[in-house]
Write a structure and sequence with these properties.
150 residues; three-stranded antiparallel sheet; Spore_coat_protein_Z/Y; virion; capsid protein; CotY/CotZ family spore coat protein
Length: 150
């Protein structure tokens, strides 16, 4: 089953996210110009000289709307933030996944209204992870690979 209960033989969103996780996990330590395929290739770089990139940020869609995840920062105020951009941490065989919220530290908007209102120039990991059912998503957009962990 996939979005809206329709039968599908493949779940392309989970397949792409699995490829991203595999590519990200291959990093030591931790045809289109912009596409998931190109972002994965950029992440892997030339095998003789690593790219220095560690994350393919993704934007997911459910029922044709951008998906926004929420979490609580580990700060004194326990600030709740939302994000449309994620780093895939793990994809399980049952099409569930762990996603980490990505944010630009300069972005003061804790709850952006849509992806165009969220800054992406300097996306970084937040330490906030959420669990999702990939069968609920019908579209994935990959941003260019970035160095989000350091």
């Amino acid at each position: 089953m996939s979005c809206k209960g329709k039968e599908h033989s493949d779940n392309c969103v989970s397949d792409i996210l699995r490829q991203i996780v595999d590519a990200q996990n291959d990093i030591v330590e931790h045809e289109c110009d912009i596409s998931c395929k190109q972002s994965i290739e950029d992440l892997l770089g030339d095998t003789t000289s690593p790219s220095g990139l560690d994350t393919v940020p993704v934007l997911l869609y459910c029922e044709c709307k951008p998906f926004k995840g929420y979490g609580v920062l580990n700060d004194q105020q326990h600030t709740v933030i939302g994000s449309f951009f994620f780093r895939v941490k793990k994809v399980y065989d049952d099409d569930c996944a762990v996603l980490e919220l990505l944010r630009d530290p300069a972005d003061s908007d804790r709850n952006p209204k849509d992806p165009t209102h969220q800054k992406t120039a300097n996306l970084r990991t937040t330490g906030i992870c959420i669990n999702v059912d990939l069968k609920c998503f019908c579209h994935v957009t990959c941003l260019p690979a970035v160095d989000a962990i350091n």
